[in-house]
Amino acid sequence: MGREHREHREHREQGGRRNGADTERGSATIWMIGLMTLIFAVAAAITFTGMARVARHRAQSAADLSALAAARLAFADPNRGCAEATSLAVGNGAKVTRCSIDGDGIADIQVALRLLLPVAGGVTVMAGARAGPVHISDFAN
């Protein structure tokens, strides 16, 4: 019984470790937490970048369609052209911030689209487009 007692006492004096082999208990947990945090941060960055790209494309599509709608009515009724452009932009989730139709029938449209990002808040994405009449003589050559 004396030998067993002595081994137990030596074990306690070493801090519960046998031959110092268990000096890194729990370090794998810390490394895994760090790795999971890194993976989460990268996934969030990729997700936010993707959301921003989609919003940019949506804003550009709204601007393009709005400019075409305004140009279609440029000579007949320029005021109605801008109203039609605004209606189309709203239908695409955007807001017209600038609409002008010059004397040559060229419509210049700028739209804004609000993008809400989790944690980061809201960002406004801007896009612009120009459209005008096409002269048939341009295609004859």
UniProtKB/TrEMBL annotation:
Query: What is this protein identified as?
Result: Helicase/secretion neighborhood TadE-like protein
Asked if Ribosomal protein is a keyword of the record, the answer is no
Pfam hit, one? Tad
The record's keywords, sorted A to Z, are: ATP-binding, Helicase, Hydrolase, Membrane, Nucleotide-binding, Transmembrane, Transmembrane helix
Q: Which InterPro entries match?
A: Rv3654c-like (IPR021202), Tad_N (IPR028087)
Membrane-spanning ranges: 28-48
Chain segments carrying region Disordered:
1-23
Q: Where is the Putative Flp pilus-assembly TadG-like N-terminal domain?
A: 26-72
Q: Name one GO molecular function term.
A: helicase activity
